[in-house]
Specification:
This protein is mostly helical. It folds into two domains: 194 residues, Fumarase C, Chain B, domain 1 (Orthogonal Bundle), CATH 1.10.275; 288 residues, Up-down Bundle (Fumarase C, Chain A, domain 2). Helix content is 55%, strand content 5%. A hairpin with a 4-residue loop joins strand 7 and strand 8. Helix 9 runs parallel beside helix 16. The protein is elongated and about 85 Å long. Its main location: cytoplasm. GO terms for molecular function: histidine ammonia-lyase activity. Its EC number is 4.3.1.3. It is found in: Cytoplasm.
Length: 496
């Protein structure tokens, strides 16, 4: 069980919750903070103090007062009207992440929501009750209103949940669980939907997959180095220490480890003086992408432990402040940065693919790695597919965060578009994984021509892993199936 207290959740814990179905429980200290915060909201309602979202309308309607007897109905109207998401739903793993993150944020005790509601969110995580949440419709401020409204609808028995590959009404699920839907009270609807958990949830899932892909990119690149009889001097630690970037130094170290005891690699002057950039500059290029990943991880771990709704309640209710922590700009920037970092891993991978298949560049390998050049095309069109994917990535990498459009009668006049950024980042990760799958297929084929027995022991093991997924091609076939099979292999997430 992962104990949630609103301030110490990590990416590694999220990995266990999302990919190993680890359960969650609420820390006792968080329970106390939540109860205090809720008591403050009850007092505000009883004393008829005017506080945004408790007894006022929302957005442009913030100056409209709501009678005490209508404060519950106000919250139900809020989530119904704001559930305007459209398009395909987020994946079930992203939906699970969203529930965990919203729960963790509300456990900080600044939101005025009842413990009963948060216990139900924890129940949803532990019993795999995952809301069906459309991907499109969020501006990323006031947070992810539309996606989180679909999450909140499940609590009140009006939304849909995933169940065995189907979308099932939540009312049926609660009946099966012998539980009643939640009846929201003052501020609770707003507390549930005013936050950045859609962009952050998709960002976390994207980051976890991107981190795995960045490690995979190194052994795949190393296999290409062997296939092209690359020069290992370029990975000498002195070069990278002379520049000083930690991530670059670490990539170079890992490259040398992958290539240790290889009889296929060369030294400078043995066959050529230096390699092309796509081989020689692997530590510099991949290392820069690792810098991006480290930045993204830092921002996500702050955001996943942040209070992101509005208003926030402090000093046992003595201080209630309307602010803008729901604004997704920090996450939007991080997601746009992630897009660039991962797109570049694919860009350089595609250039290595070209060197593997191009007879003018591949140092004597068969043209397009074809078993019968001319009669059979071999890997020719695999390179086309890689080129198409990296070109698509360039379009998706356009920053979402540079866009903004006013909403709510110009009250909400600058928004982050962070959820669009996180969705596009995830698309780039999927595209890039397929590009690297193509490189892995081509590199595995190429080293067979050189001599598998001459590979480094570590890379020989990886070659066998690839061969366990796809066989060597001694004749043309439907390579789409191979690409998807290797991409699926690369996409498996394991928890240490």
């Amino acid at each position: 069980m992962v104990v949630l207290n609103g301030s110490q959740l990590t990416i590694e814990q999220m990995k266990a919750i999302l990919f190993e179905n680890e359960g969650v429980e609420i820390a006792e200290s968080a329970r106390e903070a939540v109860i205090k915060s809720r008591t403050a909201v009850d007092q505000i309602v009883q004393q008829n103090k005017t506080v945004y979202g408790i007894n006022t309308g929302f957005g442009k309607f913030s100056d409209v007062s709501i009678a005490e007897e209508d404060t519950r109905l106000l919250q139900l109207h809020l989530i119904r009207s704001h559930a305007c998401g459209v398009g395909e739903p987020f994946s079930e793993v992203v939906s699970r992440a969203m529930v965990v993150l919203r729960l963790n944020a509300l456990l900080k005790g600044f939101s005025g929501i009842r413990l009963e509601v948060l216990e139900r969110l924890a129940y949803m995580v532990n019993h795999r009750i995952h809301p069906v949440i459309p991907q499109q419709g969020s501006l990323g401020a006031s947070g992810d209103l539309a996606p989180l409204s679909h999450l909140a609808l499940v609590l009140v028995g009006e939304g849909l949940v995933f169940q065995s590959g189907r979308h099932v009404p939540s009312a049926e699920v609660w009946r099966d669980e012998l539980l009643l839907p939640i009846e929201l009270e003052a501020k609770e609807g707003l507390a549930l939907i005013n936050g950045t958990q859609a962009m952050t949830a998709q960002g976390i899932v994207g980051y976890i997959e991107a981190e795995k892909l960045a490690y995979d990119a190194e052994w795949i690149a190393a296999m290409t180095v062997e296939a092209l009889r690359g020069i290992t001097d370029a990975f000498h630690p002195a070069i990278h220490e002379a520049r000083g970037y930690k991530e670059q130094i670490e990539v170079a170290e890992r490259m040398l480890e992958w290539l240790k005891d290889s009889k296929l690699t060369t030294v400078q002057g043995e066959m050529r003086v230096q390699d092309a950039y796509s081989l020689r500059c692997i530590p510099q290029i991949h290392g820069a992408s690792w810098q991006v990943l480290n930045y993204v991880k830092e921002k996500l771990e702050i955001e996943m432990n942040a209070a992101t709704d509005n208003p926030l309640i402090f000093d046992d209710g003595e201080t209630v402040i309307s602010g803008g922590n729901f604004h997704g700009q920090p996450v939007a920037f991080a997601m746009d940065f992630l897009k660039i970092g991962i797109a570049e891993l694919a860009n350089v991978s595609e250039r290595r693919i070209e060197r593997l298949v191009n007879p003018h560049l591949n140092d004597g390998l068969p043209p397009f790695l074809s078993p019968q050049p001319g009669m059979q095309s071999g890997a020719m069109i695999m390179q086309y597919a890689a080129a198409s994917l990296v070109s698509e990535n360039k379009t998706l990498a356009h920053p979402a965060s540079v866009d903004s459009i006013p909403s709510s009668g110009n009250q909400e006049d600058h928004v982050s578009m962070g959820t669009i950024g996180s969705r596009h980042a995830y698309q780039i990760i999927q595209n890039s994984r397929r590009v690297l799958a193509i490189e892995a297929i081509c590199a595995a084929q190429a080293v067979e021509y050189r001599g598998v027995e001459m590979m480094s022991p570590k890379l020989g093991g990886k070659w066998q892993d690839v061969r366990n997924v796809v066989s060597s091609f001694n004749r043309d076939r439907n390579f789409s199936v191979d690409i998807e099979s290797v991409a699926s292999y690369l996409g498996r997430i394991t928890v240490q």
